[in-house]
Amino acid sequence: MTRRSLPQSQYVAVQAVRARAAEFPRLAELLGDRISTLGESPAHLDTAPRLLFLLGETGDGTEPLLGGLEDAVNLFDFRSPQGWDGVRRQLGRANERSHFLSLSAELVIAAWLVRHGVRVLEFEPTTSDGKRPDLLVGSASEECFIEVVTPAMPASSIDRANTRLHVGLERVESGLTVEVSGYNAHARTQDPDQDAISVVTNTQVDDVVSEFRQKATRLDTSELPATVVQARPGQPVAITAVDYDPTQPGTFVMVSWGESGLVPDVKRLVGIIRKERKHLPEGYPGAILVDLSRWSDFRGADYYLVQAEKQLARHQLPAFIGTFVWQGGAFEPESRRCLHRDEPWTTTKLGRLFARLWTR
Question: What Rg value do the Cα atoms of the chain yield, rounded?
Answer without folding.
Answer: 23
